[in-house]
Specification:
Blueprint lengths: L2 H14 L9 H18 L4 H8 L2 H23 L4
Length: 84
């Protein structure tokens, strides 16, 4: 994958992939974000194939990042609770 494609994907995921919904909606959110990522990559002149060659299915990658964000958010919420 080209350096440009790698930088694009890292930046895009950093900006867009945050847990804004409940864990049961992650799959739908990942699907939406994957379509948006593919469109933005095309606008930037980066073929989706270049990205997928390196990371595989971008929907799966985004879903994984969303799950990680949801887990981190949950851990943060739990750590803010006072000890009983």
């Amino acid at each position: 994958m080209s350096e440009h494609a790698i930088e694009f994907l890292q930046e895009w995921i950093g900006e867009k992939v945050h847990c804004h919904s409940s864990p049961d909606r992650i799959e739908k959110q990942a699907e939406t974000l994957a379509r948006e990522c593919a469109a933005k990559a095309a606008e930037a002149g980066i073929p989706l194939e270049d990205i997928q060659e390196e990371v595989g299915d971008i929907k799966e990658l985004i879903a994984s990042r969303l799950e990680e964000a949801a887990e981190a958010d949950e851990e943060e919420k739990n750590s803010d609770k006072p000890a009983e």
